[in-house]
Amino acid sequence: MTRxxxxxxxxxxxGVGAGLWASSGDPGTPAGSSSRQVAEGASGGGPxxxxxxxxxxxxxxxxxxxxxxxxxxxVRSHTPARGPGWRPxxxxxxxxxxxxxxxxxxxxxxxxxxxxxxVRGDTRAGDLRLVRNADRGANPESYTMTVxxxxxxxxxxxxxxxxxxxxxxxxxxxxxxTAPEGVVRDQPAKPQRGFTLDIARKxxxxxxxxxxxxxxxxxxxxxxxxxxxxxxxxxxxxxxHPEIVAPEHLTKAQVRQIVAVAAQRHITVVPEIDSPGHLGxxxxxxxxxxxxxxxGVATRGAIDISKQASASLLDDLLNEYxxxxxxxxxxxxxxxxxxxxxxxxxxxxxxxxxxxRARYGAGAGVSDLATGWLNDRADTVRAHDRTMRAWNDGFFxxxxxxxxxxxxxxxxxxxxxxARTPTEYLSAGRKMLNYNDKYLYYVLGExxxxxxxxxxxxxxxxxxxxxxxxxxxxxxxxxxxxGGSFSVWCDLANSQTQAQVAAGVRxxxxxxxxxxxxxxxxxLTWTQFTSLANRLG
Length: 537
What we know:
Layout: H1 11-14, H2 35-43, E1 77-80, E2 93-96, H3 102-112, E3 115-119, E4 128-132, E5 143-148, E6 151-156, H4 159-172, E7 182-186, E8 192-198, H5 206-218, E9 223-229, H6 252-264, E10 268-275, H7 280-285, E11 290-292, E12 298-303, H8 308-322, E13 329-333, H9 345-348, H10 350-360, H11 366-382, E14 387-391, E15 408-411, H12 422-427, E16 432-434, E17 441-443, H13 455-461, E18 481-489, H14 498-517, H15 526-536
Parallel strand pairs: 2-3, 2-4, 4-6, 8-9, 8-18, 9-10, 10-13, 13-14, 14-15, 15-16, 16-18, 17-18
Antiparallel strand pairs: 1-7, 5-6, 5-7, 11-12
């Protein structure tokens, strides 16, 4: 997913050794200045206007003022300058300021055909230098990239920020392009930028998932959600409960490799074992735990949360997979528990009503028991020091038992019976993630009135504040919205091949990346954005 942009039409021919003009686009120019603003400042006659000095004596050459790089997502600001820019060439080095950046250095060196030289204090023509700075107050994912005098320096307060700088550089030089002279200052609007993949209903190969991880990394995503347990299948090897695992599944070795490829790109893999609904595959091996109504009829996908054995089984799995997924996030699920979709849950499921009263008192109901189940699973995961999220329809109104205070609301729909508006959660102080099913749900086969989302609608209409439907919540809640996730759900698994899914999500992923990185109206039209994406591959 590399991107290209020259720093003026003559740059490629002029080479690195040519002389430079001093520029009004000095790094001291305010970060928000555009190329046009700086150019106008240099030529204008008003007070404080910079004046371009005379060109160097012959035979040095001059260069046009650089233009901002075009990348996906777009950089937040670029201070232009005059100079040859930079492009990779055989024999040039990647050097790092300290050994902690070795992974980032080796990765970009391999991608650009450069030599990785490790920690070096010397300077050579053509170097790409990666540095961690001491700006502790800065956004940890921010970075500054300076292209000057035939060299590049990427500086950031964290390894992740340095990595994102190398993604921008990789995009700029794609296809023989040149990184434009000047300074890029960049950072994301939202700290959580995700892609969720349903591997339970459809088996995706480990290689296909790794390819998506590489794609996500180049687009500056930082989370991959894996929904690997549902009614259709349980898709990851289990040592505690091998009886629940589908014949087609990922081995733990394959998952570790996916996690490693993701970690190299600063992507956290977020696992989801959805409960107490969506457990059909687990229950096929444990029919004694299947929820049944008062007539003895099984309820699809639902586990009987009145039984201690149900809790023990789920906790076994949560504890087991906490060791396989070392990242800081966990998705508990919590949605669509069918016991709560009937008109009178207590009458239909008297065992749940009885268990609720026994645990929480005479006034407790089935929704209290379901909330308690989610809180108990949260306790299990919290012991592994994870930040947890649950689907919005796992949070119930009017219960005496309240959802754990540290649960982030993963808001996906307002279609569910009794669904609460996003503002209800936000006004109560909850943090939220945006999974808006109107824009961000790619549901195979388009069942239940779903249609495949288009990148254009996301790019032109959606922002992280559009949590439900098409209407954004008030700007005052923006800081509580941590980010969002584009999701692939495989309800009709055979509707598309893996290759078709990859092609179908290509532009939606790029559009979502842009809006999570910078929620403002993009500078490019959709036609221009599509052309850029096609040029970059």
